[in-house]
Protein 1
Amino acid sequence: MAIERTLSIIKPDATRRNLTGKIVAKFEDAGLRVVASRRIKLSQADAEAFYAVHAARPFFADLVKFMISGPVVVQVLEGEGAIQKNRDVMGATNPANAAEGTIRKEFAESIEANSVHGSDAPETAANEIKFFFSDLQIVG
Ligand code: CMP
């Protein structure tokens, strides 16, 4: 399988509960490598732009409000089949449907405060990585 990169966000519900290290350990245990990492506070404009694809969804305003409610940790994860691997480690979007051992099963509070975001496809991953990082900031 090809080496890929994917964009991960550790969300405000997780940074608030000091879970960054526990979540990164799950990525690393699955064979993903953190090749870029930054803790930031998103502005409203940042969050709206990042989630623009969901702009028409009924949960959009609440999602943006939540994503700017505290710090997030944005990271690039690298590894074999990293996009799907990260999605497997995260578990289903709704923690009620997430499998045992996944990040969302273990840590998520709700479908909105679900602790992590991960890119869903190669094109999305490329765009989402570019949203936060320049090539020089990614060191494999
Ligand atoms: P994420 O992977 O970051 O992508 C969009 C986010 O919207 C999703 O995770 C959830 O945190 C949030 N969200 C809130 N409500 C819903 C919903 N009903 N369906 C899907 N995503 C939702």
Protein 2
Amino acid sequence: MSHRISLTQYLIEQQREHGHIPAQLRLLIEVVARACKGIAISVNKGALGGVLGSAGSENVQGEVQKKLDIIANEVLIEANEWGGALAAMASEEMDSIHVVPNRYPQGEYLLLFDPLDGSSNIDVNVSIGTIFSVLKKSADHPGVSTEDFLQPGHQQAAAGYCVYGPQTTLVLTLGHGVAMFTLDREQGSWVQTAIDVRIPEDTKEFAINMSNRRHWDAPVTRYIDECLAGKDGPRGKDFNMRWIASMVADVHRILCRGGIFMYPWDKREPRKPGKLRLMYEANPMGFIVEQAGGAATNGLERILDLAPTELHQRVSVVLGSKNEVERVTAYHRESRTGT
Ligand code: AHG
Ligand code: MN
Ligand code: MN
């Protein structure tokens, strides 16, 4: 790319020339990007900033919170609550929604986030990230409640993630393709480094936590065993495997070179539909992946069409290169219908 533009320029062009976003949404994205910059600074300081280790508390899902989970959550709340674009926020790290306080103007958008994705990687200096989803609040009633957030993913106005890795990269969709921005630390600005990102439809790389194999459902075992059989198996080609244990980093690799990511339902806790959360992990990632030409299902249905019933609900996730996701989904459907 010879002519590089900043995130601000990109957003203004999207607003002015293409009419893709209203001014309030543009401001909201800018603020989220600024918050991610702040989180990146804390992440980079690591042990020097005293930000590693456990916070000694648990979130609503019973997971031990790391100091950075809480720091990232606070950075996002503080950055976003006063700008006037939002009515309320929801986060993996908060039991219930955070309504914008009365002292600030109420906007028309709702922001959901996983402030720090890949928490188990914080203390070992492996890529982690922030995931966010933007919804529009229905205008047909005053005030805001949890029900306002329970919209299917195809209604997202925007979604994105920031990966804190060797580079700090922000990936964004406004529903018209996917763009990537890399943080230029000297300039302190986000510079566009990829436009119209496309995920190859075919792949030879899968991402799944193999240690759970004995707990999987039959269609998942079938698919992965076929990949493992390589050239001599039914797929007739060798597959490679990657598992970073940060969804952001695994999805980012898939956006860059293709692949399939799966965190399926398994028998460890059969009543839970999966490990990952629908509203602030699967929906935003599903939106981004689809906008890049990939696919995202829960094994049977399109993730973006699921009707949420709870803020923190979990979901089985299969996403990435289209033909592989369709294959896994077909295996699940066959096992349901017995065909
Ligand atoms: P979080 O740190 O926000 O709780 O999310 C972690 C998720 C996801 O990023 C990753 O793909 C998965 O958990 C890893 O799970 P395992 O440790 O079971 O492999
Ligand atoms: Mn997460
Ligand atoms: Mn998290």
